[in-house]
Amino acid sequence: SHQVIIRIICSNNTCTTITITKEMQDRTTTATQNQSLTNIVINIPTVSWQGILTSNNVYIVNVDTMKIVGKLTGLAENERIYSARLLGDIFFLVTFRIVDPLYAINISDPENPRVIGFLKIPGFSEYLHPLYPDRLLGIGLEDNYLKISLFDISDPINMKEISVIKISNLISEALHDHHAVTIYGSKQLIIIPVTPPRFVILSSIPNPGFLIINYTKDLLNIRDFVEIQEPLRSVYIGYRIYLISVNKVKIYDINSGAVKEIELK
Q1: Alpha-carbon Rg for the chain in angstroms
Q2: Which listed CATH number (3.40.640.10, 3.40.50.1970, 2.40.10.480, 2.120.10.30) goes with 29-122?
Q3: pTM for this one?
Q4: Which residues pair with 3 in a beta bridge?
């Protein structure tokens, strides 16, 4: 099968396309564009023709010509890519098999991307989000735990996991859709919907709802938990956080912790 990357350019009611086609057997592709809008980083996991060994490739593509200008191949053999984030000239990449390697890849020279940092920790991050220029949030899993990590990336050569929250028997829509994560930067809050996993027999079933997490440059801390069935998304306006489910909205007051409820009919 093939991976196809298409750029569509429209001007004066006429559109043209530029296409890159790569042969590979895995269909997962992550693309992140850098701030200069000159190059795009495309991270593509591939499977060998024997179907036994897997490896991962990072391609640097010029968005004007749609030509590959640089690549890093054979990365993290026998592991799967879970998440990626480009911050400036550093491309952060998470792979997983038994432990979670967080890679820092320098792409300042697009023709010669290179791994400059590598951190191995248990579990894996499905989503990466910058909280500060030198701090990275990771949301993922470790065994039967939902895992929320804070990474110090001030030195990409020597990255550190500096704070962790682990909660048993809960998963989150954030593992599959980053729109489920709300970052309220001015209040230093992270809001994540959580639910018990389906089709898993548990001795006690935890309640679904929203985790409200405080963060600083050095610490993650659970501020509150608001129970609500079938939690979906959250938004904030001023000192209120609106926690949205299938059939109701709960309004969380950041100052007092009070919760009001609106039924959706």
Answers
A1: 20
A2: 2.40.10.480
A3: 0.81
A4: 22
